[in-house]
């Protein structure tokens, strides 16, 4: 199997863009179906137990389409 970004010695932005271009459209819907809708309550619970406060810094690492990250940003503010 060819892995273009490995062969080129770095990550090719176009490769990554094309890889996820269509996937994000079904990812969130699939998550809701696979978790029977409990994903929303899990995200709310995570935010409530994380002791997030205005002005905190949060690093988004492998957060899917970012829905949780957007909810965290709403909680702590843009700065």
Topology of helices and strands:
Elements: H1 4-7, H2 13-20, H3 23-34, H4 39-49, H5 67-76
Describe this structure in words.
This protein is mainly α and 79 residues long. The radius of gyration is 16 Å and the shape is flat. 57% of the residues lie in helices and 0% in strands. It starts with a helix and ends with a helix.
Question: Share of helix among residues?
Answer: 55-70%
Segments where pLDDT lies below 50 for 5+ residues?
none
Mean pLDDT: 79
Question: What's the tally of helices?
Answer: 5
**Elements, N to C (H/E):** HHHHH
Q: Main sheet, how many strands, which sense, barrel?
A: none
Taking all Cα atoms into account, the compactness measure Rg is 16 Å
Overall body shape: flat
Q: Strand pairing plus helix content: what structural class? A: mainly alpha
Give the CA-CA distance, first to last residue: 43 Å
Beta-strand residue percentage: under 5%
Q: Can you count the beta strands?
A: 0
List keywords for this structure.
79 residues
Short description:
With 79 residues, this protein is mainly α. It is 57% helix and 0% strand.
């Amino acid at each position: 199997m060819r892995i273009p970004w490995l062969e080129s010695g770095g990550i090719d932005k176009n490769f990554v863009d094309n890889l996820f271009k269509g996937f994000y459209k079904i990812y969130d819907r699939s998550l809701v179906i696979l978790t029977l809708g409990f994903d929303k309550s899990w995200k709310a619970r995570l935010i409530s137990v994380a002791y997030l406060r205005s002005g905190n810094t949060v690093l988004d690492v492998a957060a899917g389409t970012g829905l949780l990250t957007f909810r965290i940003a709403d909680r702590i503010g843009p700065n």
